[in-house]
Amino acid sequence: MSVTDVGLLHNRYVRLTDRFKSIWTYHQFAAGIFKNFVESPLPYNIDFRRMYDRLKAISSTLNGAQMEQASSEIAVSDLALDHATNALVRADALIGPSLVRRFFEKLKRQDDAIIQFLIKFYLYADAVEGDCRDKVDFLFTRIGEDFIAERGEYWSRDSLEFRERIIALVSIMRRADAQEDEVVRLIRAIRSMRDEIQEAKAFEELTDRNLLRNARVFKHRLGDLYFHPDVLLAIVELNVSTKNRFLKLYAEEEQHILEDSQKLMDHGDAITSNFGGTNPELIEEIARFREVKGRFDELRAESNVKHDVMTHLKSSMTNILAKLDAGLAGADEIESTTDLPRTFYAQTEQVENIRSRFSNDTVLQPFLLRIAAAIDAAEEVVNVDNLRDLRLEPWEVAAYLKLFERQPPDVAEDDDELWLLYLRAAALRIKVDEEATILATTLAAGVDPEGELLTKAKQSLDSAKELDQLFADLLHEAVYYSNPKILHQLYRSRFRLLRGFSGLWLIYDRKSATS
What we know:
Layout: H1 3-38, H2 48-59, H3 67-92, H4 97-105, H5 112-125, H6 131-143, E1 145-148, E2 153-156, H7 159-170, H8 180-198, H9 203-208, H10 211-221, H11 229-275, H12 280-301, H13 307-328, H14 331-338, H15 342-357, H16 365-379, H17 384-390, H18 394-403, H19 416-444, H20 451-475, H21 478-481, H22 484-514
Antiparallel strand pairs: 1-2
């Protein structure tokens, strides 16, 4: 063999031993997870001793006379590591990202070398999508942060040194080169998300504005660009900054949450006895509160509180506490409360639901409430005509029910990103159609439309363009365009909105041209 061939063979062996170390490290990690958190035996049986002995034997054959034998043994060992990796990846599917975080948070001391070999395991296995992306994201952040006790917050490590570590880790991947302008654009987007999260003044903003979810979705959609050293460095800075903001806002809210929730738990029986026969909606809300409170207490004991659980708990308390004083004030006030019609509570719940999920769409909220009222009324067979008049698509009705957990998702790809888009598009379509009708009628009568109406129409046209871009983005997502059912729904909802947009634009443009 030539000197070049010898060098290549040595490189193969070095990569092989490094890969074995990553697999062994992951095995030790998985054993701890399954023993302490999953509480079940390991779902695989791998003979690590045999693989180690084989690798050790190869090292003695890496000389000129035995190169052919060494090359053959390396190929066999590579195949054995492939089989072991596949078994471990299947086991990893049973370990959620939150378990990985809880595992490391229980460690008193952190060994960066272990975390780096865990990262290598995922990279060698090419297991970097879905939940694996979240785990890799956490692990990179773990070796990219330091806790500053004096300040009580996390800090990103020196960027130059950490960048070199990132380059060494991602070098084991095979990825295409990225264009410099694309990298710059992504870094700006990441820093914009970081700044937006830092500007959050209250804990609910993280959920109401989908700040954390949007950051997670963004990282998932980056593909291999996630592993560009400069992009990954910016992502770690985003994660560290987000963690600090989350902890600060959480600390401010936790004590209030604990006090208010305990107050509500103490008065729960009194509320039930006073309102049980006259206000079933409130009793149902109390039951939901107790369920969420139990989940919150469970996660808090595990130091694993999710921001959405905390937000749901606070929202549930807000719904109940507003009625608590009136409910316990005395018999006279109770009697006056029972005179309120059932629709009062339904309308209140609809307003709270819509505001909780569409807090930024204040212009569309009246139309979203009409959709909510029509669907709820149709469910109770109160007034099916209202629902028919809105001409909603079946999946738009289903989106509303799924969004508020009254109907389960159909498939894994069916999530609240789709549901929110469907409902916003339906609400905007109703708004656009009404404004087009009023404008057309006004112009036909020879009357100049009011400036406020033209302003609303312009606002609707701008919103339609924004939603159309969202439709376009989702139609390019592999997870959606590979699903014929969702693909059909996206195209039909998009084209129905575009048809309304075109009608309103023609009328608006004609009026603008004559003004």
